[in-house]
From TrEMBL:
Residues 1-42 are annotated as: Disordered. It comes from uncultured Chloroflexota bacterium. GO terms for molecular function: hydrolase activity. It comes from the Bacteria. Keywords: Hydrolase, Signal. InterPro entries: AB_hydrolase_fold, Esterase-like, Plant_Biomass_Hydrol_Est. This is Phospholipase/carboxylesterase.
Length: 239
């Protein structure tokens, strides 16, 4: 991981197969701001597996808002992805984007970067056209397989994501390492799905050795995300 980050200063091709996202929040007023209404709504990019967007009550294009890209676990859907932060979004003024993987889980886990990167990029482009986003608070979050993908995509695109939140990840497989996003990792000591000894207890030291500002919290529990851990991760991001 350290060697990859050292090489990231070299020019590399950008695109879905390299795990690279091209979407960026544009300065000034969003071009499609008039189409935004608060609440939960479909992304509307594809039929079948699509995704959800949540605009918090009180959102205003005059006040750029923090944004969290929420990634579901294996076999999940957009509602599962939103679950952890949805109840806090209005209070925090937080925009949530929850795309669905093209297959049962995320592309890098099932064969390599490509279709999910393309879809996430389209989702973020749509949101950036419609919403004013604070570029200092753009996070990617996930649980289980979603956490592994959040780390992989977040480290590959640290020039977009300022924060990465990984609840019970299995691994990180960045195609490249760009930027310096801050990282939050939590994991239950009794996790029998992704055991902590072979997952976060190996992964977190590698992140720290690679120079990432990493906050790590082990908790007394299984493969889950307790309410206090959700609050801690969100407070860490917004703080």
């Amino acid at each position: 991981m350290t060697e990859q980050r050292r090489q990231s200063t070299q020019e590399r091709p950008a695109g879905p197969r390299q795990g690279r996202l091209l979407a960026r929040a544009a300065p000034g007023h969003p071009s499609e701001a008039s189409s935004v209404t608060p609440g939960l709504q479909p992304l509307g990019l594809e039929e079948g597996r699509d995704g959800l967007l949540y605009i918090p009550v009180g959102y205003s294009p005059e006040r750029p808002a923090p944004l969290a890209l929420m990634l579901h676990g294996a076999g999940g859907n957009a509602h599962h992805g939103l679950g952890f932060f949805l109840d806090h979004a209005d209070t925090a003024g937080l925009i949530l984007v929850s795309p669905e993987s093209r297959r049962a889980t995320w592309d890098v886990i099932s064969g390599g970067y490509g279709p999910d990167v393309s879809y996430v990029d389209r989702a973020l482009q749509l949101v950036f056209r419609r919403c004013a986003v604070d570029p200092a608070h753009v996070s990617v979050e996930g649980f289980s397989d979603g956490a592994s993908y959040a780390l992989s995509l977040g480290l590959t695109n640290g020039d977009l994501f300022t924060h990465v939140i990984a609840f019970s990840p299995g691994f990180a497989a960045p195609a490249d390492q760009r930027g310096a996003p801050r990282v939050y990792v939590s994991h239950g000591v009794h996790d029998d799905v992704l055991p902590i000894d072979r997952c976060s207890r190996r992964l977190v030291p590698l992140l720290q050795q690679a120079g990432y500002d990493t906050t790590y919290h082990e908790f007394d529990g299984p493969h889950t995300v307790p309410t206090d851990i959700v609050r801690e991760g969100l407070t860490w991001f917004l703080g």
